[in-house]
User: Fold this.
Amino acid sequence: MLANRLRFILLAILVFSLVGCQPAATAADPAADGALKVTVSIGPQAYLVRQLAGELASVSVMVPAGADVHTFEPSPRQMRSLADADLYLTIGEHFETVWMDRFLEINPQMRVVDISEGIERIPVAQGVQHTEEHADGEHADGVHADEEHADEEHADEVHSEDEHGDAHDHGGLDPHIWLSPRLMKQLAEATRAALAEADPAHAEHYATACAGLLNEIDTLDAEIRATLEPLPRQRFLVFHPSWGYFARDYGLEQISIEVDGQEPSAAELAQVIALARAEGIRVVIAQPEFSTRSAETIAQEIDGEVLLASPLAEDWMDNMRRVTETFARALEQ
Assistant:
């Protein structure tokens, strides 16, 4: 804890010394030096800003591709760049809560808008034991039937901030809302509104671009549905439970290898392997942001393979098509 405080003090001294050597911030007047300067937390948000704003905005992504959002800490360079930001778009990630006060100390004039406001989260998928307890058809939509009790069961638990599990960081709720095309449309609308409020002179441009993007997302949604619906399998095995909204949208169910955000024990690994063998599952879906050790162990035991699917890629539309092909490969075996 002391080390974290010392790190922040040193970081703040560095940032303020550099900011003090620069001209006055222009965060309140985005038109003064050209493009609107927007900072976002993750790559899929950058996709939205670029699709809606084009050259009207420059975008900085806080968590780079391949990084672990659960253990992320901004670099001194990123902190310096915030001094010039006009707008920060949050999406409900845990690190935003941890760091936002510090961000605003750097740039008090920066607008902060939560584009995920109003979107209802679903519980994070649990491990195999939980899955098997409810494997009698109670979650045909990819969401566990006891979801209404998830917050009650964990309300009094205390977890270290070093644990990377979403179940800990989000009170048991899944933050990966952008992996649902339907919810991505809501995020697009919220992004449009935030851009228009920060830059009203170009509100019409943002509205026109948003309408086109929503049509493209509808097309993507139809493509995904047409690809996945005919496949014989509905359950898939993942290391990290990022795909709950995707599963819900398309009538699937993810089975998580992680247990409460932690690597599985030997007994839990054996349970996963037994389930995979019983169901004929031959593919384990992992993320490039995490170690694939456990996934590879399971794949070897079931004579299967590990496929990678990233939820954080900046080319969101193309990535969702790649992800769909990955899931199709997993579900057709």
Observations:
- The CA atoms of residues 134 and 144 lie 7 Å apart.
- The chain has two domains: 2-119+180-219, 128-173+229-331.
- Residues 1-6, 12-29, 134-170 have pLDDT under 50 and may be disordered.
- The domain at 128-173+229-331 is CATH 3.40.50.1980 (Rossmann fold).
